[in-house]
Amino acid sequence: HGTHVAGTVGGTTVGVARGVTLIAVKVLGCDGSGTAAGVISGIQWTAENARKRGRKSVANMSLGGGYSSVENRAVAAVVDAGVPFAVAAGNEDQNACNVSPASEAKAITVGATYFTGSLGSGQDIRASFSNWGTCVDVLAPGQAIKSAWIGSNSAHNTISGTSMAP
């Protein structure tokens, strides 16, 4: 999942910002488990690292869960420190204002679309899984996204989710 998201952002084959320096902040175990404290620590590390490096930075967080005012405040603090923060809206087809960090007003919350029809006459519509509502700031393609994958330097996979959209 993380490899795919990083490849979408800055991969040499399909990345939208080729040449960018990516820094992974691991907050979950390989099995996807973790703690709220671990996630918040990673969020806080992001702001501190950007300050130490003295370079313009943008943060992306492609995970979420139930509503957490503590997590939302941590994301807001990073934004207040000058680091824009894009977050996945979530994949539960529910109001994004009910989950974190998607509900944080200072975050850029990104929902997912998919393309239907043919080139020139088709349209992007909200993906059926994408969270929605007033907390979603922007929609971006998030269904059937090809990007880097684990296994080799040339491995790719096509997956879907709001994580693929930011």
UniProtKB/TrEMBL annotation:
One Pfam family this sequence matches: Peptidase_S8
A biological-process GO annotation: proteolysis
Any one annotated GO CC term: extracellular space
Segments forming domain Peptidase S8/S53: 1-165
UniProt keyword annotation of Hydrolase present: yes
Family: Belongs to the peptidase S8 family.
Protein name per the record: Subtilisin-like serine proteinase
Organism per entry: Acanthamoeba castellanii (Amoeba)
